[in-house]
Amino acid sequence: MNIVVCVKQVPDSWAEKKLQSGDSTLDRESADAVMNELDEYAVEEALRLQEANGGPESSPVTILTVGPAKAAETIRKALSMGADAGIHVVDDSLHGSDALATSLVLSKALGTTTWDLVIMGTESTDARMSVVPAMLAERLEVAQLTFAGKVDVEGTQIRVQRVTDTGYDTVEGALPAVVSVVEKINEPRYPSFKGIMAAKKKPVSTLTLADLGVDADKVGLGGSRSTVVDFASRPPKAAGTIVKDEGDGGLKLAEFLAANKFI
Amino acid sequence: MAQILVLVDHVDGAVKKVTTELLTLAASLGEPSAVLIGPGFDAAAGTLAEFGANTVYVIDPDGTAGSADFVVAPAAEALAQVVAEHSPAAVLVPATAEGREVAGRLAVKIGSGVITDAVAVVAADGALVATQSVFGGSTVVHSVVTVGVPVIAVRPNATPPKASDMPGPATRVDVPVTFSNSARLGRVTGRTAAARTGRPELSEASIVVSGGRGVGGPDGFSPVEELADVLGAAVGASRAATDAGWYPHQFQVGQTGKTVSPQLYIANGISGAIQHRAGMQTSKTIVVVNKDPEAPLFEIADFGVVGDLHTVLPQAVAEIRKRKG
Description:
The structure holds two protein chains of two kinds. Chain A is an alpha/beta fold. Chain A has helices spanning 37-52, 55-58, 72-81, 99-110, 132-140, 193-199, 209-212, 220-223, 249-259, and strands spanning 3-6, 9-11, 33-35, 61-66, 85-89, 117-121, 143-154, 157-164, 167-174, 177-181, 204-207, 226-233, 241-244. In chain A, the strands form two sheets. A nine-stranded mixed beta sheet of chain A has the order 9-8-7-10-6-1-4-5-11, with helices on both faces. A two-stranded antiparallel sheet of chain A has the order 2-3. Chain A is globular and about 65 Å long. By secondary structure, chain B is an alpha/beta fold. Chains A and B meet through helix 4, helix 5, strand 7, strand 8 and strand 9 of A and helix 4, strand 7, strand 8, strand 9 and strand 12 of B.
């Protein structure tokens, strides 16, 4: 079974994020760049499936990312966790791409390799749209098994527990399929020193839009099907009344709620 | 007038609150037309009409086409068909997990731009301008779809639902569908319900009471839950609390958990790093209880108590019960 994990490099979720005034795109420079947290769970799930399905020979795990040059660090991180190879689509024309363009480029990149299962996180912490995995399943015309809290593969059949507001649905399909995983589906492994060293020698191929046969005008800011009209920072809320509990903190809290008609 | 499609979120015709919100929004932009997929027209029709639906497109009313048996794709296919046949000005879906995925697939199918998590939509200069509150609410963005029929996923609990001034019976229009093979690839073979809490759903609740590291352990959530129950609120938890296994992950509020914007958010034992703030800082009223006077969350609190939640909350609960009589 050939597994591809789509990962994204995003600003650290513990840092403040902002849009750039020039083209209203996300400022990716001012914060540390890390692997999207949910993608760590995706890489871990891929490695577990590899271990349960014959190891790297039978079930190689390839990391795919679409991003600027420094996104290569994210591929290396996944390789040091134990993935086998990487594909990095990098092209200046991709700057400012919307989700439609991202999913298009991912689908074309997948066309350059053999794959049975695509695994990704449900969303990235920067845009938080939760649409790319579904868009990818749509473009690839394969089973969409998203929001998975549990993944089981048996031969060519795959079954997931899809998280819902009321619990979960059991969803089944056949490979090839697109799976997205939720947080806490597993406990991602830390790269070992050996893994970090080995990662340096693993193959990572670099592709441009031309390599994928994608016109630059279909992606990037120019190819985007939505646009930011304007944006503004919301002023931070000013602090209100803070009281110290002197045996009456709870009473004061209840008083505040009553005064503001919450009780 | 421009027709605005609204995908109905329902369970066997019991219409969810977010649908009444989307119909209210649609009515401010044009003529609302509801799209009802699956059985339940008789149960839903009244509510849909009450909140302004002039037309209800009915798809797979007896369930035989399989709309409930396959994940997401049939809804996207059905909406694409209605769009092709009836040329609406926009499609509104709820920005729930499922709604976003439907929006994404629909956008690919019809070649349109998609905007998710809109908290408002207004018509301006012939376009629909969506407002998005991003990066945990620190930035407010206005955006428009520039290609195709706009597909907009609207955040639940962002629009006060308003019954129509002139509700009439909605016209039922049956839309026969046959779902394609590629819509029938992810089959739902079981539905498992988690234990019910009896509390409102976190992303819809108008009051949320949360616990964080200061709670100290799973038992520490008792005072939090008691306060929630006396206020009829939902319970939330910080990343620290769910990572420690003190509360189930589905209640996590924050950057990698749920984003909520209730009328009242009471944070107990939560310091207020951006991880958590990003999930709740647009709440209308914020109350913070924390032993640490330096806790950053006090900076955005409308009211705060520097104290131990284990004594403050029970006292508050007792006083609230007394006042309620």
